[in-house]
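One example copied in:
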Amino acid sequence: MEATEKVTNLVQIIICMQDQLITKVPKRSPLILRMVVLIFAIFCGLYIFSICMKQTDKFKETNPPKIQVINRRNRPCGDTRIQESDIPYVHFPKPDMFNRQECACNPVRYFVIVSMQRSGSGWFETLLNSHMNLSSNGEIFRAQDRRKNVSTIVKTMDKVYNLDWFSSASKNECSAAVGFKWMLNQGLMKNHEEIAKYFMRRGVSIIFLFRRNILRRMISLLANIYDMDAKLLNGTHKSHVHSPHEAQILATYKPTLNVTTLLSDLKIADDEVAKALEYFKNTRHIVLYYEDILTNRTKLVDVQEFLKLPRQNLTSLQVKIHRGPLYQHIGNWDDVKKTLRGTLYETFINTDYKL
């Protein structure tokens, strides 16, 4: 009996121990699981963000941005007199050939005189160059090697506008306006798209100078071509003269106009002017006419204001060659008058300015 009790007690002890060992795991709360997932997601997010920030800082150190935002209200040399609208047209060149010294902080404006041969552009340019702060460097694209293609044209203009182009008109370090003269048939019209973009990009202003009476321009052109061979002034050809005596000698030649092609020739000249104005209409510009400057010198004031220059009295030593009425300068005047009668160009012979 005693052994039986011992066995029974032993079995009971084993059962109790089994009950204690084999216990049912309680179910976890869904709320706790969600909190754990949320905390894990936040931790991962913060970790990824810190890695990205380190990579960004490293990129900034090794690859600084190439595009910089410039505060356009800042003025070079502390100059605050420049208006916001003038900023694209104001420049501070740094020439390669010399130092602007005390004038380094003086703003420079870029311009070009666009014209046609024998339209008074030579006389007009001498007027501008009499201004102490303006440099107009002449007909630089008369040389064909400078207008072989767009690249050579741009290279030449860059040199002029950087003040590295030297001529008798150069004011060098103290120039407040710099430019040159450009005829329509010197590569300007042929490459007008690229040149217009250049003008817009560099802030170049155009001064258009044409003649209203293109018949007079034709007379001057033919007379100048004739004198290239005849050399009426003591065996010397001069496109421009500085004395009434020289002008009188050159005016003795009276060209004979081709009346067969006269109307078409006049129309071609008209069309070229219209196309030039159309091609460069979006460029800052002013339109002048030779006759208006002759009869109204306040036009020169308009030019100085256009270039934002201090007003000065502009002078020229050049003397006009073909003075007086048209009939005095045309060899076949009656034929020309008959051809133009009743056409758009009749005004050229009926009305004329007094000189």
Notes: Strands lie at 109-115, 134-136, 177-183, 204-210, 285-289. The mean pLDDT is 85. The radius of gyration is 42 Å. The CA atoms of residues 114 and 182 lie 5 Å apart.
